[in-house]
Design brief:
Two copies of one chain form a homodimer. The first copy, chain A, is mostly helical. Chain A has seven helices and four strands. Helix content of chain A is 46%, strand content 8%. The first copy, chain A, binds a DNA duplex through helix 3.
Chain lengths: 154, 154
DNA sequence: GGATAAAGGACTATTTTAGTCCTATTTAGG
DNA sequence: CCTAAATAGGACTAAAATAGTCCTTTATCC
């Protein structure tokens, strides 16, 4: 466990697509069909990424999204922060001083240091790095169109 | 976000208590009253920790739990593994090869490396380390008994 | 044999996450 | 200036994970 949410994982896929198409403006629908993730979900994610400044948006006809800056300048921590709020391994370390077990908790500050270590690991990996390990993925297609595999049950 | 569950956090507090009382056998009730965490919850956690070998248990009258090994030999990763299953930042990296987006996912292997970094951070911190940062905690007491503050709402 | 304590597991409630949809606003282009 | 194509924002629902409780069984001490 200790995992990022599915949505954050999707978000990374979306950013990867935008990074691979930096020159063009991509609509949510474009990105959705390219990645196989449902349109409403893509839309929701890109909105969040827009609010936090990882992508820029253009409204109106021919509008869409673009990566806001170089993939080297976007870290894994940025992505997680944007979609899940600030990285922090325990509740305490986020809203510090508010822990209900404060009087009893003998561990408190301990996790903070773990947190710093994790934070550093996440800061050190950029979107560009994430893309480099990209083995060009075979894509499921039918009649030339990528097939959405979302919502399939195991 | 990207946090450990509340139960794992509690688990660490329990282990900290056992570490501080290595010489004696502590019953679940003892630990509960010392930490202010509800008995059934403590019991559930200690059972899990027993199954995964972080604590040893003695059944019957005067039974209870003891830390299985030196606090230096128990890492944060061990604790998380015991209570949440194997650390892994995405679903894919846990049950690899089973991702439903496999054909479309261009990011896959990327998170794995982030995962390794996090894993390393968690392996490097031992229960003993967690205790060192322990500022002796003031405890809420009433008539000499520690007060459980669990289930208080904000 | 009775009391104490863990083992195991079933069960419920709560919270979080995922996913959808509706309405308003912005912009390009005929 | 009207229409179509987009994003913005937020309400809402459904599903899943988490937290927490309780009950029954088994082991051990005295």
């Amino acid at each position: 466990m200790l995992r990022i949410s599915k949505l954050t994982d999707y978000g990374t896929v979306l950013l990867a697509h935008l990074a691979a198409n930096r020159t063009s403006v991509c609509s949510a629908a474009d990105v959705a069909s390219a990645t196989g993730i449902a349109v409403p979900t893509v839309s929701k994610l890109l909105k969040s990424l827009g609010r936090t400044g990882l992508v820029t948006s253009t409204r109106g006809a021919n509008g869409g999204y673009q990566l806001a800056r170089d993939p080297r300048e976007i870290s894994a921590a940025d992505i997680i922060d944007a979609l899940e709020g600030p990285v922090s391994i325990t509740e305490c370390s986020a809203t510090d001083g508010q822990c209900e077990h404060e009087g009893v908790c003998s561990v408190g500050g301990a996790w903070q240091r773990v947190n710093v270590a994790i934070r550093r690991a996440l800061d050190d990996v950029s979107l560009h790095d994430l893309l480099r390990s990209n083995i060009p993925a075979p894509q499921f297609q039918f009649a030339g169109l990528p097939i959405s595999v979302e919502n399939k049950r195991k």
